[in-house]
Amino acid sequence: MTTVRLDPRRLLDLGSWGFWALVVLGLSLFLGTTSVAAWRKNARLHDRLTAVSTAVDALEARNRSLEGEKQALTDDPAYIERVVRRELRRLGPDEWVIDMRGSK
Q1: Among 11, 24, 81, 84, which is most buried by a count of CB atoms within 10 Å?
Q2: What does each C-alpha distance from 70 to 47, 60, 67, 82, 87 come to in angstroms?
């Protein structure tokens, strides 16, 4: 039976196949780990972006519904009267004068 002895100095010789095999193995491990880390980071960023997009969509839907309510309120004469009365109360009696004369 023959035993194979590997001399570490021979493995590190630039001309040997062992050296280049170690270089290729090291590069493949490095690139593999960095690509997996980048993939995981991109997945987390994608999840965050999806959550933000969902929140923005919900806010836009809520805003659209509030616009509808606002339009319904501004068409209501009682609402307009309440707003005018509130503004007149805020201004105080010294700052407003109501002309009760009819239009000519």
Answers
A1: 11
A2: 34, 15, 5, 14, 18
Instruction: Find the radius of gyration of the CA atoms of the chain.
Output: 39
CA 23 to chain centre: 41
- Spatial CB neighbours of 15, under 8 Å, sequence gap ≥ 6: none
- The per-residue pLDDT for range 39-50, each reduced to its tens digit, is 889 999 999 999
Structural domain span for residue 48: 27-91
Residue 17 lies in a domain: no
Domain membership flag for residue 6: no
Q: How many CA atoms lie within 13 A of 73 on its CB side?
A: 10
